[in-house]
Every structure is written in structure tokens, then in C-alpha cells.
Amino acid sequence: MRHPVFAALCLTGTALLSACGRDTDAEVEKVIKDVNVIDESNLSDIMLTVGDPNEAVTYFANTLKQNPDRPDLRRGLAKSLVRANRPQDAAEVWGALVNSGQGTNEDRVGFADALIRSNNWAQAEAELNKIPPTHETYERYRLEAMVADSRKNWKKADSFYEIAAGLTTKPANVINNWGYSKLTRGEYAGAEKLFTEALSYDSTLFTAKNNLVLARGAQRKYDMPVIPMTQTERAELLYTLGLAAVKQGDVNVGRGLLEQAVETHPQYFEAAARSLEALEGRVKN
């Protein structure tokens, strides 16, 4: 009499165990999947920062083939292509992303950046114009400033450079770019001021040091600026200043600066020596 009940209980228990087994398997699979996502996310971050650019391109391209609907992988591929000095390929990837409906305003900024790197200024400007004014980021305004510069719209360029500098805690590079813009316009005093400001944020930025010397040379200021520099940097800056003096027609001053550059450099300064030799030959002739 008890056998049917016992059998029923056994069957019920088996069903419960089976269901528990399926639930456990599903939970395990979910945990493994979550761990894989975390690991993949970490790997993606590494590839985008310290990894070899070409290896990163391969990684994101292969992973994207397996997961073609994931915008983060497409984004990673585009960024890796930029790092690998392949801006045209990056522009194609970013263009596909922003036109897929999965892209963000920041992706469109990246698209514009790749277009500028590809020397496609008109399309870059068109993409920036599609970004709403509420998207206020350093990268967006840095690119806006560069586009305005390319159009020689100095008032707008100055405004965008100023906004960009205010949106980052590390403004040295963008202020240096702003100074270079002033330098190309012939506004040498303004350029000098901006290069000095850039160095106040990053005293190791050699580009700003070199540009500062160029701005001073254009004003016939041939004394070295009071800025931190290594012995090698001093020699290279003396060389730049010497060439600037020669260009201004101050040949004797330029010769003296080139001689100082050769003497100051801790190794043989071939470029300065060659320029000095060429200058001596020109003077003799």
C-alpha cells in the first residue's frame, strides 16, 4: 500500500534534484560568463593603453568577428588603429559605428579626430557640427579649435582653445597648440606667453620649449629663456635660436649661437656643426 506513495515521493525527489541540477548548471555558466566578461574588459583596457598597437588591432579585429554587434569592440578597434598610425582605417571603423545607431557623441568626436589625422578637415567639421552643444568635453573643443585654425578663423579658434584648456587638468599640450597657432599668425608676443604658460603646467614638454625659443627669436630676443632644461636640450634650443637669428638676417648672432650649440652638446652635434659649416661657407662666398 505504501509502495505507490514511496514511488511517487521518489519520482518527485528525482525531479527536484534534476531541476536543481539544471539551475546549478545555469548559475555556473552565468558566473563563468561574468568572469569572462570581466577578464575581457581588463584585457581590452590593457590593449588600449600599454599593449602594442598592432597587437591590439589584431585582438579587437578578431574578437569583433566573433561578436559583430558589440560597439565596445568596434570602438576599441578604432582607437587601436589610431594608436597604430592608421587613421584612415580608424575613420572607417568609427564611421560605421556612429552610423549604426550604437555610437555615442564621444564616438563621433573620435571619428572627427581620425578624419583630421587623415587630413579630411571638411568632413571632420561636418561631424563636429552634428554633436549637440551640451556635449562639452576637452577632446571636442580641442578638435573644434584645430578646425577653426585650419579655416583661419582666429577668433573662434582662440575661444575653443580657451574652453578646451579649462576642461582638462593637464592643459599643457593644448596651450602649446594654441601658442603655435599664434606663432603661425605672426603674433609672437602672444605665442611666447602661451608657450611659457604651457611649460608652467609641464616643464618637460620639449616641443613647447622649442616653440618658445622660436617665438623669442622672431622678436629678436636671442638670450635663452629661464626654463628647466637638460644640457642636451640647451644645445638643441641654442641650435633652434641660432637658425632663427640667421633667418632674421642676424648672421653674426646666429653663428655665435650655433657655435655655443656645438660646444654645449654632450656629444657630437652633427646638425649644428653642419649648419655652422654651411653658414661659414656662405659668408666666405
TrEMBL record:
Lineage: Bacteria, Pseudomonadati, Pseudomonadota, Alphaproteobacteria, Rhodobacterales
Family annotation (Pfam families): TPR_16 (PF13432), TPR_19 (PF14559)
Native organism: Gemmobacter aquatilis
InterPro entries on file: TPR-like_helical_dom_sf
UniProt-recorded name of the protein: Tetratricopeptide repeat-containing protein
SUPFAM superfamilies recorded: TPR-like
Gene3D superfamilies: Tetratricopeptide repeat domain
